[in-house]
TrEMBL record:
It comes from Tegillarca granosa (Malaysian cockle). It comes from the Eukaryota. The keyword Metal-binding applies. Gene3D superfamilies: 6.10.140.2220, Tetratricopeptide repeat domain. The lineage of its organism: Eukaryota, Metazoa, Spiralia, Lophotrochozoa, Mollusca. This is MYND-type domain-containing protein. InterPro entries: TPR-like_helical_dom_sf (IPR011990), TPR_rpt (IPR019734), Zinc_finger_MYND_domain (IPR053248), Znf_MYND (IPR002893). SUPFAM superfamilies: HIT/MYND zinc finger-like, TPR-like. Keywords: Metal-binding, TPR repeat, Zinc, Zinc-finger. TPR repeats lie at residues 178-211. Pfam families: zf-MYND (PF01753). Residues 23-60 form the MYND-type domain.
Length: 371
């Protein structure tokens, strides 16, 4: 991993006549070049540093083959192969930059999410064109980053562009509609317009449920943000119910991963090679953004539960167990043990023996793990 070093990256350019170099972030005239990839330029050190911290460190070397001049290929077949290969790389860059941008949002690093979202938008335009529905996820990341930064007018512009594209695309998926309504809900909540926020989040949950199911982790975000709105309104009974629903969705998802990961391998019997069971359940892996979402959401619910008056022991035990499983999956064993111990203590006051036994069994697994 490269360390950001101003001495290494400062490189005033002597622009060749007729060549216009523009800043990666603001498109103003550029005077600084990244000396690691030599295909990326900036107007000043601040924008260079912001891009490096947001996304450039991750994609620096990958940009070289995408931005260098194409070699002369005499064969049409070779040119088509090269173009196909470049399109695959660009699509990979779209996925990588979007996932990174979403991860940064969940971590509360809104300023750093902007360069990643801009890169994803740039590659999406290159691959799909200016009017494609494929641009919407990038607009939504930019919109959510703007909300987090308190730039609500700018957020409205990004979300208006996303909404216009969705409206003119009849075949738009429920997954994209869900993300749009979620961002609109966040915007109204930031403006203090809570009833409008709840309506948008209800649409988010509807479309996400249609696409993924009611109890999918991709639907749980809508419940979580809706719970936050009810919490701000002082409607605690509804908020508490929704927080419990979010906890249950993540708990069941994480438990499934842990169960598969800790399952005892089937021993080979008899002579001959071991034949794998094709019906064996596969692990649902979390991508970087989902990991960050789980950390943010479950810790927020835990903080609320810990300070809640007249809390139910099973609610605290369940969220602690969920966090313990999450940190086990993230290979943070000390934190997994910390929340596991809290789950054990909380479950002692819980009449549900099944939860208590599950927590104790999981703690036995954790004790076998090396820190």
């Amino acid at each position: 991993m490269y360390m950001f070093d101003l001495k290494m990256t400062l490189n005033p350019l002597a622009n060749a006549k007729g060549i216009k170099l523009v800043c990666e972030l603001c498109q103003k005239p550029a005077f600084i070049q990244c000396t690691k990839c030599r295909v990326t330029y900036y107007c000043d050190v601040e924008h260079q540093k912001a891009d490096w911290m947001g996304i450039h460190e991750k994609i620096c070397q990958s940009l070289i083959p995408l931005r260098q001049a194409a070699p002369f290929l005499p064969s049409e077949e070779d040119r088509q192969k090269r173009e196909k290969h470049l399109q695959i790389k660009k699509r990979h860059m779209i996925d990588l930059t979007r996932t990174t941008g979403q991860k940064l949002l969940f971590e509360g690093r809104h300023e750093q999410a902007v360069p990643a979202a801009m890169q994803s938008l740039r590659f999406a335009i290159d691959v799909h064109g200016l009017a494609s529905i494929e641009l919407v996820p990038s607009y939504l990341i930019l919109g959510e980053a703007s909300i987090g930064l308190g730039r609500l007018s700018q957020a409205e512009e990004y979300l208006a562009q996303a909404q216009w594209t969705v409206l003119k695309t009849p075949e738009c998926s429920n997954a994209i509609k869900s993300k749009l309504y979620r961002n609109l809900g966040l915007l109204y909540a930031a403006k203090g317009e809570y009833e409008d926020a709840l309506r948008q989040l209800a649409d988010d949950i509807y479309h996400s449920s249609e696409e993924f199911g009611t109890n999918d982790i991709r639907t749980s975000g809508g419940y979580f943000h809706m719970a936050n709105v009810f919490f701000r309104q002082g409607r605690m009974e509804i908020a508490d119910s929704l927080y419990s629903q979010v906890t249950d969705i993540w708990y069941n998802h994480l438990l499934k991963i842990v169960t598969i990961r800790t399952r005892t391998p089937v021993a080979s019997t008899g002579i001959g090679p071991l034949i794998m069971d094709t019906n064996e359940e596969k692990e649902d892996e979390l991508d970087e953004a989902q990991e960050a979402e789980a950390v943010q959401v479950l810790n927020a619910i835990y903080d609320m539960r810990e300070h809640q008056q007249n809390r139910k022991p099973q609610n605290l035990a369940r969220i602690c167990h969920a966090l313990s499983m999450l940190y086990y999956i993230l290979l943070d064993i000390p934190k997994a043990k910390e929340f596991g111990r809290k789950a054990v203590v909380a479950s002692e006051g819980d009449p549900d023996d099944n939860l208590s036994r599950t927590v104790v069994e999981f703690m036995k697994i954790l004790e076998t793990q090396r820190i």
